[in-house]
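FAQ
Q: What does a multi-component entry look like?
A: The components come first, one per line:
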Amino acid sequence: QKEVEQDPGPLSVPEGAIVSLNCTYSNSAFQYFMWYRQYSRKGPELLMYTYSSGNKEDGRFTAQVDKSSKYISLFIRDSQPSDSATYLCAAGTYKYIFGTGTRLKVLA
Amino acid sequence: DGGITQSPKYLFRKEGQNVTLSCEQNLNHDAMYWYRQDPGQGLRLIYYSQIVNDFQKGDIAEGYSVSREKKESFPLTVTSAQKNPTAFYLCASSETLNTEAFFGQGTRLTVV
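Then the predicted structure of the entire assembly, as tokens:
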């Protein structure tokens, strides 16, 4: 079992939809969680960083962490074609384990 | 303009040769990391450094070496002992371990 699991997709949604991206992790010691967006052939761009259960909002993005079920989510509101990318989750303590990424396509 | 600079963007190497990838940051971060990205496998940690003159092996350190002589620099050498070196290499930094990490734009290494 991988320490951080993520559905690879692709996930296709129409423009304006609410997108839900999810990861599960197996190590209950993980305390820190991040979401990245990665365009093809580019480095990952940090979207959200959180270290507690609950929700954290930044613009159109909301990160949700449920430590009791070891489940992390990223919600994107009013999705745009420019949001089409691969989304990576990461979890860890002093070093981070990454999921394999979910490919998202937002259709105009 | 603060950030992480990786060079070169593309690198070609002949089998049997060592090659060094550059990573420089001007964010005044203590921690730096090297990851490798392969299709379908996500990012895997090669080496990380908590502070200057200190570094630790990650999950896939075999065939790689690093140094951390300066706070802003963390070069990665891919040696001839690395069996499958063709990959996308990403450098990252953070204020300390377990704070948010920021990535460079990557170096795509191809062994020919």
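Q: Is there any commentary attached?
A: Sometimes. For this entry: Chain B touches chain A through 25 residues (CB under 8 Å).
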